[in-house]
Amino acid sequence: MFLQLTLGGLSQGAIYALVALSLTVVYRSTTVVNFGHGDFVMAGAFISYVLVVIAGVAFLPAAVLAVLAMFVLGVLFSRGLIRRVRGGPHIGLALMCIAAGYVLRGIARMVWGREVLPMPRVFDIEPIFIGNLVITGDAVFIIGTVLVLLLTLFGLLAFTDLGKMVQAVYQSPRGARLIGLNVELFDDFSWGVGAALGAIGGILIAPVSLLHPDLGASFLIKGFAAMTLGGFGAPFGAVLGGLILGVAEQYAGAYIDTSLIEITAYLVIVLVLFLRPQGLFGRKAVVKV
Amino acid sequence: MQVSSLPRLRRRLFWAVPVLLLALPLLTNEYTQFVANGMLIAALVTLGFSLVIGNLGQLAFANTAFFGLGAYASAILSATLGLPWIVTIPLSGLVGALGGFVASSAALRGIRAYYLAIITLAFGELMRWVYVHARPVTGGTNGLALPKETLFGFSLSDDKVKFYVFLLVAVLLIKATSNLLRSRLGRAIMAVRENEVATASLGIPTARIILMTFAWSGFVTGCAGALFARHVGHVFPESFGMIQLISSFAMVLVGGLGSILGAVLGAVLLTALPEYLRAFPGLEELFFGLIVGAVLLVLPMGLASLLRRASPLFSERYYRE
Amino acid sequence: MKRLKTVLACAVLAASAVTAQAQSQDWETEGLSDDAITIGVMGPFSGNAASYSKALIGMMAYYDKINDEGGIYGRKLVAVQEDTACDSAKGIAAAKKLLSQDKVFMLQGNSCSGVALAMRPIIEDSGVPWIVAHAVSDSISDPLAKNIFHGVPTGSANGRAMAAFVLSKPDTKKVAIIEHSNDWAHSYSDPARAYLEEHGVTPTEELTMERGETDATAQVLRLRQDKPDFIIAALYEAETAIFLRDLKKYGLGDIPVMGTAGTDLENTMKRTGDFDTVKNYYVIHSYIDNLDGPKMKPWADMIHKYYPDEQLSTFSFVSIGSAEALVAALKAVGPDLTRSKLIDALNQVHDFDTGILSDPITWTPEDHQGVKGSAVAGFVDGKPTVLKAWGQPY
To answer: Which residues are in the Leucine-binding protein domain (chain C) (predicted)?
Structure first.
C-alpha cells in the first residue's frame, strides 16, 4: 500500500510540480504571483479539447498548438494588461490576474457551463501489475512527460546563456537592464512560458479529471503550497514541493483520514511558513523589524 | 471657500448621507431592500479588508475568515445559546477580532507579501473546513438557521427593520474607523505601510500597530458577519469561500485602496452590478472579470480618486496620493 | 435625538405597513393575466453547480410544449428565470426579486438544497405557491408549509431507496460510504445511513472525496483493505468518474457501487470512456425507463425541440414530472385561477402518474413530499436497465 500511495502521489504531484514551476517562472522574473493561474491551466485544457474534439486535430499537434496559443496569450496578457498596472499598488496586479482568470473561466462557462466533458485519452496503456502494485498508463505518461519537460527546462537554465539572463533578471532587474538586457521583453517571455507550462499541466490532467470550467481552481492552491514548501522563486524547490505535496496528500488520506486530503495543502502552507519560512530551497522569507 | 469650513462641511456631508438613507425603505420593495441591506454589509467587509491591505499595506486575505467567524459566532450564540441577536453583534465583533489577532501572528513572525497572502488564504480555507466538520457546533454542511425574533416589537424577518439596525451598526463602525485613521494610531498604521523599518526606528511599536489593525479589521468584519447571519437567516460554510474573498477584494480595489469612501463606493457598486447582470445568466464571471480589469486599467486608485479629483470635499487626508 | 427617533419610528411604521401583505383579491391573482401565468424559475444558471440547471431547462421545455398546445384556458406559462448561482444570499435575492418585483404568480424550481433551505422562510411567509422541482433536502418541505410542495423524491426517499437496493443484494454485510462534505451529499447519505442502521448494518468505512479532487488512490486503497460488499458513493459527476476509474485501476472493479440521482449511467460511461469501469455502477433513477429508452424518447425530443443544443443528462428530466402535476392542477382549477385555488388543487393531486417518474405524485394537505420512492438503474447484460431491487427489473 505504501508503494502504491507513493506512486499515486507522485503522479498527482507531477502535475502540482508543473503548476508550481509555471508560477515560479513568472515569479522569478517579474515578482508577480499569478492568482489567476488556475484558469490558465483550465484554458490550456479547453483549447486542446476544442482542437481535438471539435476541429478533429490529432492529439499531439493539438496539444502543441494549445500550448503555443497559451504562450501567446501569456505574452499578450503581460504586454497588454500587466505592464499597464505595474506602476500602481502591487496588489492591483494580483487582482488583475484574478480578473483575467475570471474572464477565461467566464468564457468556458458561457460555452460549456452545464457540461462535464470527457477528454479523449491519449495512450490507453494496459496497467502493469507488480505483485500488489499497479502501474497505470496515466501515471507513466504524466510522470514521463513532466520529467522530460523538467530536464529540458533545467538544461536550458543551467547550460545556456538564457539561464544566465534569467538569473540576472531575478537577482537585479536594474543590473540586468544596465548590461543591455531588455527586461520588459523578458517579462513578457516569462509570462508566456508560465502560461504554456500551466497549459501542459491542464492538458495532462484533463483526461483524468474530466473537463469543466472549474478544473483549474484547485490547482492554484496546490501550486501555492508546492511553491511555499520548495521556497519561492526556486524552480527545483517548486518541483520537489509539488511531488512532496502529492505524496503527503495520499499518506494523510490513507493513513489518517480522507477528509484531510482537501486541507493537506493548507496545512503544509501554515506549517512551512511557521517552522521554516524559506521553504526547502528558497530565499529568506521573513523580514525582521 | 474658507479653509476652516471645509472639515465642517465634510462632517455635515458625512451625517447627511445616513439621515437621508433613513427614508430609503419608503422607496424600496422587498427585493431592492434586501440588496440595499447587502450593500451595508459589503461596505463593512470592504472597510475591514481595506484597512489591512490598503492602510496597513499587508497582503493578508484572512478577512473572509473573520467574516465567517463573526457569522458563525452570531448564529451559535443566538440559535444555540438563545441570546438576542442584537447582543451577538458586538460579541461576534470580538470573535472576529480574535481571528484578526491570530492572523496578525503570521505577520508578526515576519511573514510578509505573497507569503502572508498565501498563509492567510490557507487560514480562511481551514476555517471553512472547520465549519464543515465541527458538525455538533456548526451544524456542518446544513448550517445553522437563526431563530425568528423581534426587536422592540418589530420583526427581524422584515428587511426594512433589518435595514435600520444594519445602518446604525455601519455608521458607528465607519465613523469609529474614520476617527481611528485620523488619530495618532492611524498615522502610525500608514507609516508602517510606507516604511516599517523607518517607523520602528522612530520608536513606534510596529508590532503592536500591526496587531491592533488586524484586530480592529477583525472586529469590523466580525460585526458584519453577525449582520450577514441575520441578513440570510441561515449560515452555511459555502458562504465564506474564495468567491466571497475575491468579490470583497475587488470591492476594495474598485473603490480605492485604503479609502473609507472608496470602500463604501466599491461595495455599493459591486453589490449592485451582479444584480443588474441577472439578465445575463451564466455571464456574470465574464462581465465581472472585464469590469474589474477595466477599472484597474483606467482608474488604478479606484473610484474614490475620481471624486477626490472632482472636489476637495472628498479628500481623505490620511490617504496616499 | 428625539426628532431622529420620531423619524425612525414613522419610517419603520410606514415600511411595515407596506410589507404587511393583505391576502386580498389582488394578491390572489397577482402575476396572472388573461393570456399568461408567470412562473418564477430559480436555478443555478451560473457558478460551479450550473450543470444542475439542466433540470430547469427540461421543465421550461415542457412549459413551451404546453404553450404550443394552446396553454391552459388560453393562458401561456411564462417562465421568469432568476439565477441563484447556488449561493444562499444570491438565491434569497432571486426569490425576493421574483416575489416583490416581478410579482410572479407562483414559483417552480430551485436546485441546491442549501439555497432552498435559506429561501424557505421567505417563501413560506409570502404564501406564494412553490413547487420544489429539483432540490432534495427533506427540510425544505418538512415541517409542512402550506404553500410549498416537493415535486421530486426527497433526499430521504432517495437515500433509503439507495440503502434498500444495496441490502437487496444477497449477502451484503459490509457497506462502505464515500461522499463529498457538502449538504447535497449528506442529504443522500444520512438517510441511507439511517436505513442501514435500522437493518443492523453499520458502514465499515466512511470516506470523503472533495469536489475538485482528481485522484482517489488513497480512498480506493482504504477500500481495498476494507473489502466491502457494496459501496455507496454520493459524488458529483466528475468525481464519480474519477472514483470508478481508480476503483477499476486498483482491481476493485467487481465491487458494486450505488450512486445518487446526481449521476446517470449513460453519461458516466461516456465520461469514463469504458464499459468495464461502469459495469457495476448503479444509480438512483427516478424514471420509468432508461434515459435513452423508448419511453423517455418523447421527452428527449421535446427538450431538443425547444433547446436543440442541450446535452441530456439525468438532470434534464427530473423536473418535468412536477411540471405535469402543476399543469394538471391548473387545469383542475378552471379558468378562474387564484393562488389559493391552485394550492387547493395541488393538495388534490393524488396518485398522479407522470409517465416519466418511476413513482406517482401525491400531495395531501398533511404531506407535501409528493414522490415517495425511486427506482434504481444498473447495467444488465451490458444495457442500462431500470431495476426495482437487485436482479429485479422495474
So the answer is: 37-380
